[in-house]
TrEMBL record:
Component of a multi-subunit COQ enzyme complex, composed of at least COQ3, COQ4, COQ5, COQ6, COQ7 and COQ9. Belongs to the class I-like SAM-binding methyltransferase superfamily. MenG/UbiE family. It comes from Exophiala viscosa. It catalyses: a 2-methoxy-6-(all-trans-polyprenyl)benzene-1,4-diol + S-adenosyl-L-methionine = a 5-methoxy-2-methyl-3-(all-trans-polyprenyl)benzene-1,4-diol + S-adenosyl-L-homocysteine + H(+). S-adenosyl-L-methionine binds at residues 118, 144, 174-175. Methyltransferase required for the conversion of 2-polyprenyl-6-methoxy-1,4-benzoquinol (DDMQH2) to 2-polyprenyl-3-methyl-6-methoxy-1,4-benzoquinol (DMQH2). GO terms for cellular component: extrinsic component of mitochondrial inner membrane. Pfam families: Ubie_methyltran (PF01209). CDD domains: AdoMet_MTases. Its EC number is 2.1.1.201. GO terms for biological process: methylation. This is 2-methoxy-6-polyprenyl-1,4-benzoquinol methylase, mitochondrial. Keywords: Membrane, Methyltransferase, Mitochondrion, Mitochondrion inner membrane, S-adenosyl-L-methionine, Transferase, Ubiquinone, Ubiquinone biosynthesis.
Amino acid sequence: MISTMFRPVSRQAASLRSVHICSRPAQRLYTTTQHRGQQLPGENDRTTHFGFETVAEAEKAQRVGAVFSSVASSYDTMNDLMSLGVHRLWKDYFVRSLNPGSRTDDKPWNILDVAGGTGDIAFRMLDHATNVNLDLNTKVTIADINPDMLAEGRKRSLQTPYGKSGRLSFMEGNAESMPSIETNSVDLYTVAFGIRNFTDKDAAIREAFRILKPGGVFACLEFSHVDSSIFNAVYKRWSFGAIPLIGQLVAGDRDSYQYLVESIERFPTQEEFKAMIQNAGFIAPGKGYENLTGGIASIHRGVKPL
């Protein structure tokens, strides 16, 4: 169970990206290894949100790809600057609360970390399983739709004990459809600070439900909605004022970080996202979510029924 005792230091956290991506020089857009089959009637007319813009679904996928290709090399450095390092506390707590490698039957876990390109969560998972639970067999697959983020993760993995251990693997794929992963095959599905960028969040959650074993856990760490009006006003001023400027000064990319700020603002509320998880078939334990730092981020969990 996720403890309710931990509350990271209340400092304004980060967001990333931008709306006017099209005004930037052309960048290589990502491709995916999975494609949906037959086009559905009216599919070209479907729209979704890209920050504060309303765009065609296919256009969002391309523009989000351009954003992450742009920020891949500076992604974690920017997270440190924008959140004043608090994102590391959130991620550490997220992993501890899931306690990977803890099992009474001593069987290794099969973990899928989605949108985990740079490896931040996966490395923590393996560290915890190895050093806390003395589990040397639990494996993590990092899945990401963006090859530039995966390339960054592969490079970083070589600086860890896991890069060539056989316990860590990488796959390029779309979270909304992952046919290469068998049904009922994963113990733990994690996604940290990524699901708000998905084109069809409901489809991705349903796919997580398919992939997980009965009793398996869907766990999401995501920026959310602040629960204090005064704190929210300060947080918004930081997000919309400082973060795009930091992106411009440090990463040379104001637009991408403007988009990321806006994507957080458009993300469902805690209760709305909880309902989405339940609608996919999951059971939400307890309250279903836990706010961190006054709701700047939240942890959501769902358990697949036995």
